[in-house]
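User: quick one, fold this
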Amino acid sequence: MTTSVTKVVGENIRVLRRDARVTLDQFAAVARDYGLAWSSGRLGSLESGTMAALSVETLYTLAVVAGRLTGRTVTLAELLAARDEVTITERLHIGPAALALAVSGVPVPVSAAFTSEGTLATPTYPIRDADRRACADLGVDLATGIAAMARLWEGRPLSAQRDAIAEPGANAQRLGIIARRLKAQLKVELAEGNTH
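Assistant:
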């Protein structure tokens, strides 16, 4: 299953708006304070994924508005964090974390290969429950955590790095030991990343 960039942003804005407990009208009013001439209907179109492409300026402004309403920093990576593969163009599809990683400073891979359907595929790894748990345990949002993981382990999330280190047929206890060691590395990376 694939999704569009606009749909990804719309779904994330809906979650942030609901977390802030504001209506479409209230969100649109704050957006207008920051120069977006948006109505509640236009915001509804974004949330439903029916709006046309978004500019970087609009994405940035939406992050500012969401941050003001939630009372916390909202990153572009958070707005671009997807659950499914994302369609960039008709011939380029990327993995769920690729957009969030790209705006977090992780290089965009240039060694893409064509799939059997004739579309470009960039190397990606699925985001698993172990990756989500590690982020939650360390108190960071998924996009921030995945970006730190990618910096540490050549684009791989914790779960893929754990599997790469583990010997074939490793039991759950062994996988847990490896995951804890990797989580400690991730904690250091996150702390160092916050001081740059």
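User: anything notable?
Assistant: Residues 79 and 112 are 24 Å apart (CA to CA).
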